[in-house]
Every structure is written in structure tokens, then in C-alpha cells.
Amino acid sequence: KQEVTQIPAALSVPEGENLVLNCSFTDSAIYNLQWFRQDPGKGLTSLLLIQSSQREQTSGRLNASLDKSSGRSTLYIAASQPGDSATYLCAVTGNNNDMRFGAGTRLTVKP
Amino acid sequence: DAGVTQSPTHLIKTRGQQVTLRCSPKSGHDTVSWYQQALGQGPQFIFQYYEEEERQRGNFPDRFSGHQFPNYSSELNVNALLLGDSALYLCASSLGGPRNTIYFGEGSWLTVV
């Protein structure tokens, strides 16, 4: 059974810092990995989708990497802003189309 | 272009009652998945519908059932509600299965008292 873990559970940084969020998964037989953002009480917004054959994806200040063999992904946020404050979730889709989420990292960016 | 829409946004039910939640997928999407998210946890996969059939199911009891209509909209039904069913229920849609970018609705908050 696929287990997805996100570390740290919570992170607080001053505005302008670069930061890294971590995601690990136990079964490397994945089809893709997605990073999502969730604002309090809201649904999820997809940030980046990395296919299993890819190593990284970039969108603006966000960069996500994938190392399937070691079961790890990182989300890098450059020059953080208060508007980046949210919970960030990673999810892996297995070859059986089953999507499993981590518990998320709650990010606070202080002005 | 309307995204994924869910209704109702909030509801309160009593233990033992039944509830129906509704979801309209993003325009053009044919695959709908349902998730349960407890406070402080990541979403847990309930089931997925494609071409009006349940294609995948997570580790949820038979009290949780669903349906997909010809227009791809979907319903989630939960019978014999328990206090532990209190959660945010999220609907997500994608095109051609779950392997493409998935779009989530804002969710339905269910409180069981």
C-alpha cells in the first residue's frame, strides 16, 4: 500500500525566503506526482504535475522535482510572499490509477 | 468556463440519517472522483466514476455509494451517518481518467451531530 509523507508538517518563514517542501512515497511504481495548494476551508488547486518519466516541472516561482527511484519529490518556492501562505499537498497516482495524498505542509509566510 | 461545482457547500445531519452530495465536473471532463478530507489530513480517495461506472474504489464501507449521470455529473450518497463521517467532501474531475491534471471543487462540509 502506497504511503505518502510530507515533512515538515508546518513551516513559518519571513517574506522573501526561498524554501523547500518535501514529499516521500513508499512505492516507486507511480504514474505521476502532483503538487496542490489548499487555502483554509477551500478545495485544492493543482500547481504542478510531474509524469513518472520527468525529473522536474517549473511554473513561475515554483519548481518541483521527482526522484522516483528514491521515492522523493521536492517543491521549491522562490522569493516567498505572504500570498503563498497555504497548505501544500503532494499526491501520487499509482499505475492502478489510485491517487494518494500526503497530510500536507502548512506554510506561513510572514510580512 | 465553469470549474468543478459542488452542492451543498455546508450541511448538518444527525447520526443515522442519509446524505446526498452533488458534483458537476469542469466542462469537457468525463471522469469524476470523490475524496473525504478530515481536519488536518490529506484527502482520502473514496471512488472514481468514468463512463457512468465505478472504476476504482478506496477503502470505504458500502455505506458510501455513488452515481454518474450521462452528462458526467455525479452524486455521492452516504447512508447511516456516523459522527466520524464529519469531513470536507471533495469532488475532482479530469479528462480521460485520473492521469491528467485533476481539478477540484470547493467541497461540501458535512457535520454529523
List the helices and strands and how they pair.
The complex is a heterodimer of chains A (111) and B (113).
Chain A lengths: L3 E4 L2 E5 L4 E7 L4 E9 L5 E8 L4 E4 L2 E6 L4 E6 L8 E9 L4 E3 L3 E6 L1
Parallel strand pairs in A: 2-11
Antiparallel strand pairs in A: 1-3, 3-8, 4-5, 4-9, 6-7, 7-8, 9-10, 9-11
Chain B lengths: L4 E3 L2 E4 L5 E6 L6 E7 L6 E7 L2 E5 L6 E5 L5 E5 L8 E8 L8 E2 L3 E5 L1
Parallel strand pairs in B: 2-11
Antiparallel strand pairs in B: 1-3, 3-8, 4-5, 4-9, 5-6, 7-8, 9-10, 9-11
Question: What does the model show?
Answer:
With 111 residues, chain A is mainly β. Chain A contains no helices and eleven strands. In chain A, the strands form two sheets. In chain A, strands 2, 4, 5, 9, 10 and 11 form a six-stranded mixed beta sheet that branches. In chain A, strand 4 and strand 5 form a beta hairpin. Chain B is globular. In chain B, strands 2, 4, 5, 6, 9, 10 and 11 form a seven-stranded mixed beta sheet that branches. Chain B has a four-stranded antiparallel beta sheet with strand order 1-3-8-7, with no helix packed on it. Chain B has no helices and eleven strands. By secondary structure, chain B is mainly β. The chains are: A mainly beta (111), B mainly beta (113).
